[in-house]
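Before going further, learn to read the protein records used in this course. A complete example follows; check for yourself that the lines match position by position.
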Amino acid sequence: MPRGQKRGDMSKDGTKSAVLKSVLLLVFGGLVILGLFSILTRRPGKKASDDYVLTNIDKITTTNLDTNYPADPRKVVELYGDIMKVLYNEDCTEEQEQQIIAVLSGILDEELLNNQSNLYKSMTNEVKSRKDEGYSFSTYQVLKNEPDIVTVEGRKMCDIECYFSLMHGKTRENYYYTFYMRRDSDNKWKILGWTAKDGQ
């Protein structure tokens, strides 16, 4: 049988063990504190979606007219201009075109819509024809003058003038249009129609 340790040796071993335990507890405590500190001070990482920038197409297709309808008739015409610019200049899928035309129909007066047998087909055919002829959409500007609002058959109406600039190859062609606006039963301004000025 092995001989037992001397009392002095056992005392030394106990002291060493206690010191070792204290050191381990301190190290463990330090790791816990460091871990908590890093969790509390860590900045939230960016999600992949945070880095995504909306394209011109997205800006139209994600437009929710139920919650974010243009505030005045000028803004409605501006949205029309944005829609035309996207249709002329961007390569849209058929699904995207349908979504864009759906937004367009939301700013058109019901009387104008009722006179359209197939708005989607007529708009996409018109844009395709223009593109095939070498046209692209350069810019537009809604004139800043405040519209005169009148009442016709109990409905508020006004005219908004807008300038459109198209590029035909390297040639710039300017067009001036008058948009006829009418407010519906929900007090939303809709496009009733438009005409080109100066016989354009």
Summary: Residues 1-42 form one domain.
